[in-house]
Amino acid sequence: MERKKSYIEDVERGIYDIVDQEKHAYIVDKGLTEEIITEISQVKNEPQWMLDFRLKCLKIYKSMPVPMWSADLSELDIENIVHYVKPDAKQSHTWDDVPDYIKNTFERLGIPQAERESLAGVGAQYDSEVIYHSMSEHLARQGVIYMDIDKALIEYEDIIKEYFMTLITPHDHKFAALHGAVWSGGSYVYVPEGVQVDLPLQSYFRLNAKGAGQFEHTLIIVEKGASLHFIEGCSAPKYSVQNLHAGAVELFIREGAKLRYSTIENWSRNMYNLNTKRALVDAHGTIEWISGSFGSKVSMLYPMSILQGAHAKSEFTGVTFASTGQYLDTGMKVIHAAPYTNSTVHAKSISKNGGYAYYRSLLRVLESAHNCKSTVNCESLMLDNFSKSDTLPIIELFNDQVDIGHEAKIGRISDDAIFYMMSRGISEEEAKAMVVRGFVEPISKELPLEYAVELNNLITMELEGTIG
Q1: Using CA atoms, how far apart are residues 39 and 107, in angstroms rounded to an integer?
Q2: Of 167, 211, 258, 398, which residue has the fewest beta carbons closer than 10 angstroms?
Q3: Planar angle of CA 60, 269, 322, nearest 5 degrees
Q4: Cβ-contact 282, 308 below 8 angstroms
Q5: 393 and 378 in contact (C-beta within 8 Å)?
Q6: Is residue 81 located within the same domain as residue 211?
Q7: Which of 280, 301, 322 is the last residue of a domain?
Q8: pLDDT score for 395
Q9: Where are the alpha helices (DSSP H) in 367-448?
Q10: What domain range is 214 assigned to?
Q11: Domain boundary residue among 248, 281, 301?
Q12: Is 11 a residue whose pLDDT tops 50?
């Protein structure tokens, strides 16, 4: 007789849902007008060209339709979102100087400990501004630059002007244009030719303000023969009103360089996560994406690798976990634009308690990209009869001198495997947790120890109370 499946509501998210008292140094009105955009730029004391760019993006945003091909965004009310919240804190390079109410939040999340044990530098953003930034003197002596991008706009204005929103343009989609209009905070990283950054750098983004948006911009340039591991962490407490995240990540990997970009996103269930990430890879360069996507009410996230140099390489390893009330539409895009390029995609999704995990991908091989190779593998695991999972892989080939492989698997958790472990004294819940941990092991093994532990803790949190 088939066992009945039980529907269990999600448990609280512990430290991630602790709300700080809101203390603002400055906050703009709700909505999106030229006056608000101008106000944001003036408060941040930006050059005129950036204000002009913001206003141009606003016009593009208003001219573009809301995407209709994916998740339902009809309930997202941009006019009811606060697009800039400056916390009551000045940026500090010393942890002790950070205000206690902010410092306590990041200490609960383990940021200072991780910095001491496994990081070469940390940036911590709270709401719309970076409030803490540090980097080892060893890297600074090698010419590595790691700072918040607002500060870089002043100190390296010509470089920011040359690269800013050239990979992700405001014409790409409506929320890229929104980002261009209201962006604030984020990171600028520059790694000089030949420099190997042995320990990771990390930026952590915490959105505490109710009914607000976070729109950080990350710009990373890794020069010829250099290497870097950059980690991005995100979280927010749960509110009964909408919050919005529409950041942008632009990565430039030069000849023979290597960048690993790891993300653990743990947004709250009232968050619309409409992030855009893109990498441009020169000859013999490598981009590695490691992605763990938890939380958010809706996610639309498809990192893109543009392999523009011969023998360039892209690797993507990602896991998505969708639970009650979540529609997580995630995937990967790869553009093979040069010969002898190589890409691999390993995507895994888990759904439970009625969650919807949708894998969407694009693999495009241009006419000039002969003798390229690509392997795409996506697996979906459903933990009950209430959940949904779909895959939509798109493959566009403009020459036939290619080696392309695609494999997809969708299935429920194996009753036989659970029964086997239970017959050896393991509880049903722990048996299922073991199966899920094994399913996501390719992700956790690619992360530094502290972040692999966080990933496993998030999985444990998601699995609590799940039966069947």
Answers
A1: 33
A2: 398
A3: 100
A4: yes
A5: yes
A6: yes
A7: 301
A8: 93
A9: 415-422, 428-444
A10: 24-301
A11: 301
A12: no
